[in-house]
Each structure stands twice: as C-alpha cells, then as structure tokens.
Specification:
It is built from 11 helices and 5 strands, in the order βαααααββααααββαα. The protein has about 220 residues and is α/β, with parallel strands linked by helices. The protein has one domain: Nitrile hydratase alpha /Thiocyanate hydrolase gamma (Nitrile Hydratase, Chain A, Alpha-Beta Complex). The strands form 2 sheets. It has a 3-stranded parallel beta sheet with strand order 1-4-3, with helices on one face. Strands 2-5 form a two-stranded parallel sheet. Helix 3 packs across helix 4. The two termini are about 35 Å apart.
Length: about 220
C-alpha cells in the first residue's frame, strides 16, 4: 500500500457550518480572555502561577487519565473494544466519562496499516471528558494547517516516523463530532493489568501525534 493522507469530516455538513466558532472570532476571544486574566491578577484575585498549575493539571493529568482508562479497557476487553468502535459515545459514558464536548464521540483504531491523527482546522474542537483541556499546540494555526497538508512532517516533529507503507488518515473534528484515537497496544505487555496499561497511554497517542509508552520507557523515564 502506498502512503497517503486524507482529511475526513463525517458530520455531513460543510465544515465551516459545523463549528461553533469561526476562525476570525478566535483572536478577539483570546484578547478578551487575556485582558480579563490580567485584570484579575492585578487586583489580586488569582495567582498566575496557581492558574498555570491548574491548567497543566487538567490538560495533562486529570483529563487524559480518563481517556487512558478507556484505551486500556479496550486493550483488555474485546467486547468493550467492539462496543467502543461501534458506539463510542455510549461505551465511554458507561465508564462515567460524558458531558459537554463529548456528546458525540467516534473512536479511530490504529493498526499496522493505518495511523489516525486528529485536528480541528477551524478552531479547537476537542473531547474534554476524555482528554481534558486541549494543549496550546493543538489550538495553534501552524498545527491546524500542517496536520492536513504535511502529517508526516508534523509527526516527525513530535518525535517519531511511520513506515512509508502506513497510511495516515487525518480526521477533522467539528462541534458535532469529536474523535479519540485508539493506539496500538505496546508489545511485551501480556499479563498487564488495566491500571498498568493505562499508565502507558499518553495524551498525544490518543490524538495521534504520539505513541504509547513502552514498558521499558515507563520504567526508565528520560
């Protein structure tokens, strides 16, 4: 199979109409948020360091842990995996992860032949219940543009390359549909508990811009 990439939008409507936001509105929203934050800091209502810690916690720890548990269960339970791929919203909700930004979920399975990668080209649609807050790079214009145009180049910048025969599919999130990547289970994990497997799942592996940790890398973090 020759390498290829394609942008997918299964919501059915034109992409611009499917989003809650328009690209032109984002800068003004960002300016307002920054102005409000500066005012609150100036008046002593918030500690900027504490705010950074809170955002980091939800972006990297609390949210992604939910998604990691979903992935680990799918790795261990074939019946749950089938349900997850057939009806992700219900399967994820059965574990208690549901709510705003996760009403309509689709799970994409990575295989030895296909690698899935998620982007939101117009704004930053993101599955909060399973991944927490979107990282800054996910919302950036360079990622939103280059993920579709040059996915292999983007993955290389994230630290890994895929064989040429692996097809890369780029899926464009909308306000109607949010995606979660089901990465391949790392080798040499036979007998691992769901909890141990969840510890190998990274946030980026569930976006498609990274891979799960190996048992060795988990034991010896750099």
């Amino acid at each position: 199979m020759s390498a290829s990439s394609s942008a997918r939008d299964d919501a059915g409507d034109p992409h611009a109409a499917a989003h809650d936001h328009t690209g032109s509105a984002l800068p003004q929203v960002d300016v307002r948020v920054r102005a409000l934050e500066s005012l609150l800091v100036e008046r002593g209502y918030i500690d900027p360091h504490a705010l950074d810690v809170l955002i980091e916690t939800y972006e990297r720890r609390i949210g992604p842990r939910n998604g990691a548990r979903v992935v680990a269960k799918a790795w261990c339970d074939p019946a749950y995996k089938r349900w997850l791929l057939d009806d992700a919203t219900a399967a994820i909700a059965s574990l208690g992860y549901e709510g705003r930004q996760g009403e309509h979920m689709v799970v994409l399975e990575n295989t030895t032949r296909v690698h899935n990668m998620v982007v939101c080209t117009l704004c930053s649609c993101y599955p909060w219940p399973v991944l927490g807050l979107p990282p800054v790079w996910y919302k950036s214009a360079p990622y939103r543009a280059r993920a579709v145009i040059d996915p292999r180049g983007v993955l290389k910048e994230f630290g890994f390359e895929l064989p040429a025969e692996v097809e890369i599919l780029v899926w464009d999130s909308t306000s109607e549909v949010r995606y979660l990547v089901l990465p391949m289970r790392p080798l040499e994990t036979a007998g691992f508990s769901e909890e141990a497997l969840a510890g190998l799942v990274t946030r980026d592996s569930m976006i498609g811009t990274g891979l799960p940790k190996t048992p060795e890398s988990a034991r010896n973090p750099s």
